[in-house]
Amino acid sequence: MLLMATYDTKAEEAEYLIAALTALGVDVDRCDISLHAKGAQWGPEEKLKGMKDATARAIAEIGTTKAGGRRMVVAIGGGTGGQIALQVLRSLPISMPKVLVTTLPFDPRYIIADSSIVLVPTVADLCGLNATTRTALDQAAAIAGGLYHSTLPTGPISLKPSIGVTTLGVTGAGTDVLCDRLRANGDEVTVFHANGFGGAAFTRWAQMGAFKAVVDYTPHELTRNYIAGAHVDMPERFTAMGHLPRVVLPGGVNFIGMGEAALLPDVYKERPHYAHSPLFTHVQCTKAEIETCADILGEALKAATAPVRVLIPMGGFSSEDRPGGTIESEGLRHAFADRLETHIPLTRMPGHINDAAVAEAAADLLGEIT
Question: Which domains does the chain carry?
Answer without folding.
Answer: 2-149 (3.40.50.12020), 162-369 (3.40.50.12030)
